[in-house]
């Protein structure tokens, strides 16, 4: 369930440089934020200058994700310090065609939600250096309704902000009247 929500959050809501190399950051421009490089609709939700995870690229697969399919997200970047007590919080806002809206907030231990790989080894909490964060899940129709979504994901730790990303997207079913839409 947690992995399903995270893949949904990030996918429907990041390669390499040593910790001593210069790390490029996409400029944050507006409240809507700058798109982060990669194949996804994910953008910065706040200025990333002080983030302890410098995102280089985010891919979502497939893009866009569809209901009743596996959906994943992979984030590449560099941690600028070791993290202690990383924490994830999120808000999903669902916008239905008839004008109704729903919100689902949540928060938990970051290490329960994302696979973190550093130096070809799973490691959480993350340590200083380059890393790949990933999550893949099956988006079940009973859990994920067809609608437009706004997703806001914030990760923090004892060291301060880790990253804050957002996405706006539409979720559609994989099949309509027995015909595959993709």
Automatic annotation (TrEMBL):
Residues 1-19 form the signal peptide. Keywords: Signal. It comes from Cladonia borealis. Residues 40-171 form the MD-2-related lipid-recognition domain. InterPro entries: Ig_E-set, ML_dom. This is Phosphatidylglycerol/phosphatidylinositol transfer protein.
């Amino acid at each position: 369930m947690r992995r399903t929500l995270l893949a949904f959050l990030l996918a429907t809501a990041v390669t390499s440089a040593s910790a001593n190399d210069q790390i490029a950051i996409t400029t944050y421009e507006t409240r809507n934020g700058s798109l982060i490089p990669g194949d996804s609709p994910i953008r910065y939700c706040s200025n990333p200058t002080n983030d302890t995870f410098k995102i280089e690229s985010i891919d979502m697969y497939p893009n866009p994700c569809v209901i009743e399919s596996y959906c994943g997200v992979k984030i590449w970047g560099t941690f600028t310090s070791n993290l202690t007590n990383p924490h994830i919080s999120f808000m999903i806002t669902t916008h239905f065609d008839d004008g109704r809206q729903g919100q689902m907030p949540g928060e938990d231990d970051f290490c329960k939600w994302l696979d973190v790989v550093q130096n070809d080894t799973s490691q959480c909490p993350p340590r200083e250096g380059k890393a790949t964060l990933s999550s893949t899940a099956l988006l079940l129709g009973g859990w994920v309704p067809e609608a437009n979504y706004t997703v806001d994901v914030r990760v923090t730790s004892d060291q301060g902000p880790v990253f804050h990303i957002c996405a706006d997207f539409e979720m559609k079913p994989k099949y309509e009247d027995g015909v595959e839409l993709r």
